Hints:
Helix content: under 10%
Strand content: over 45%
Strand order of the largest sheet: 3-2-5
Number of strands: 5
Shape: elongated
Structural class: mainly beta
Largest sheet: 3 strands, antiparallel
Distance between the termini: 31 Å
Low-confidence stretches: none
Radius of gyration: 13 Å
Order of helices and strands: EEEEE
Amino acid sequence: TDEEARHIKISTGFLPSGGTYEAEVMQDGAGAHYLTNRESTQTKNATVNHKSTIEVDLAPGGGACILIKKK
């Protein structure tokens, strides 16, 4: 991201219908900031399908990684 924090919603509509998947979301943690707290992270897991939405919080200058595996 740029210097602005944001909350984004990511559609899983790209996944094939009829399947169930495990999403592991690694994102910025509490108090994360590219200037003052670069190492704050958190990981969360969710069961998703092609109709789900994954919500991610991005810190200023931060980012996220999402791994999706078929169950």
